[in-house]
């Protein structure tokens, strides 16, 4: 009787362990990307370090000029020192400059035009792996994965295009989207042309065959 109980106990323990492994496996299964992750996004362009901004002050050409955004994200003009610019739209920066100039100019009217686009660091698209020129790119409105591939000069002959992926952060969580680059580039399958979002990372792995 004791031997039978011992075997039964071992059987239950083994079954319980197997059930736990199955549960853990289920938890580890990648979750399909959400609809929000697949949807395109159209944010206003945010100024970033390395950009140049052309500041036009109406009827005040002596304080109108083009200045670079410093690595610390700030700009300096003759009447405005160390004004934060990174992470703002051109309109927001223009209003901030107006506020700073109001101490010296009566009712200043400012327009800011961004040139030499690089973009805010957190908004950049990064391409790693078997791209011809792996690099970080400024995000553009309505940018697709095809635009990114063109910008980096395509993929290398060693790329496993249909195993590429986009790492995307949605609501504070990372999601992995499968990208069929071979189908897109070689076969012209436009359905594989995923819309990019600010901060995406395109990973192009190497083929081992």
Automatic annotation (TrEMBL):
<dbReference type="InterPro" id="IPR017477">
    <property type="entry name" value="PEP-CTERM_polysacc_export"/>
</dbReference>
<keyword id="KW-0449">Lipoprotein</keyword>
<keyword id="KW-1134">Transmembrane beta strand</keyword>
<dbReference type="GO" id="GO:0046930">
    <property type="term" value="C:pore complex"/>
</dbReference>
<keyword id="KW-0998">Cell outer membrane</keyword>
<keyword id="KW-0472">Membrane</keyword>
<dbReference type="Pfam" id="PF02563">
    <property type="entry name" value="Poly_export"/>
</dbReference>
<dbReference type="InterPro" id="IPR049712">
    <property type="entry name" value="Poly_export"/>
</dbReference>
<keyword id="KW-0762">Sugar transport</keyword>
<feature type="signal peptide">
    <location>
        <begin position="1"/>
        <end position="28"/>
    </location>
</feature>
<dbReference type="GO" id="GO:0015159">
    <property type="term" value="F:polysaccharide transmembrane transporter activity"/>
</dbReference>
<feature type="domain" description="SLBB">
    <location>
        <begin position="125"/>
        <end position="203"/>
    </location>
</feature>
<keyword id="KW-0564">Palmitate</keyword>
<comment type="similarity">
    <text>Belongs to the BexD/CtrA/VexA family.</text>
</comment>
<feature type="domain" description="Polysaccharide export protein N-terminal">
    <location>
        <begin position="40"/>
        <end position="114"/>
    </location>
</feature>
<keyword id="KW-0626">Porin</keyword>
<dbReference type="GO" id="GO:0009279">
    <property type="term" value="C:cell outer membrane"/>
</dbReference>
<keyword id="KW-0406">Ion transport</keyword>
<dbReference type="Pfam" id="PF22461">
    <property type="entry name" value="SLBB_2"/>
</dbReference>
<keyword id="KW-0625">Polysaccharide transport</keyword>
<keyword id="KW-0813">Transport</keyword>
<dbReference type="GO" id="GO:0006811">
    <property type="term" value="P:monoatomic ion transport"/>
</dbReference>
<dbReference type="GO" id="GO:0015288">
    <property type="term" value="F:porin activity"/>
</dbReference>
<keyword id="KW-0732">Signal</keyword>
<dbReference type="InterPro" id="IPR054765">
    <property type="entry name" value="SLBB_dom"/>
</dbReference>
<dbReference type="InterPro" id="IPR003715">
    <property type="entry name" value="Poly_export_N"/>
</dbReference>
<keyword id="KW-0812">Transmembrane</keyword>
<protein>
    <submittedName>
        <fullName>Polysaccharide export outer membrane protein</fullName>
    </submittedName>
</protein>
């Amino acid at each position: 009787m004791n031997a039978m109980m011992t075997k039964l106990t071992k059987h239950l323990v083994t079954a319980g362990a197997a059930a736990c492994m199955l549960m853990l496996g289920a938890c580890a299964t990648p979750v399909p990307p959400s609809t929000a992750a697949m949807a395109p996004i159209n944010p206003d362009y945010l100024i970033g370090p390395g950009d140049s901004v052309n500041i036009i002050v109406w009827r005040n050409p002596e304080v109108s000029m083009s200045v670079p955004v410093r690595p610390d994200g700030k700009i300096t003009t003759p009447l405005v020192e160390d004004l934060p610019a990174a992470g703002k739209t051109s309109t927001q920066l223009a209003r901030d400059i107006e506020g700073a100039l109001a101490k010296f100019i009566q009712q200043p009217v400012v327009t800011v035009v961004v040139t030499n686009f690089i973009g805010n660091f957190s908004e950049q698209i990064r391409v790693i792996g078997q791209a011809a020129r792996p690099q970080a790119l400024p995000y553009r409105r309505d940018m697709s994965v095809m635009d990114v591939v063109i910008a980096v000069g395509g993929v290398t002959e060693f790329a496993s295009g249909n195993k590429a992926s986009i790492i995307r952060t949605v609501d504070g969580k990372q999601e992995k989207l499968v990208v069929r680059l071979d189908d897109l580039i070689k076969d012209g399958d436009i359905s594989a042309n995923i819309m990019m979002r600010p901060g995406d990372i395109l990973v192009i792995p190497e083929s081992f065959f």
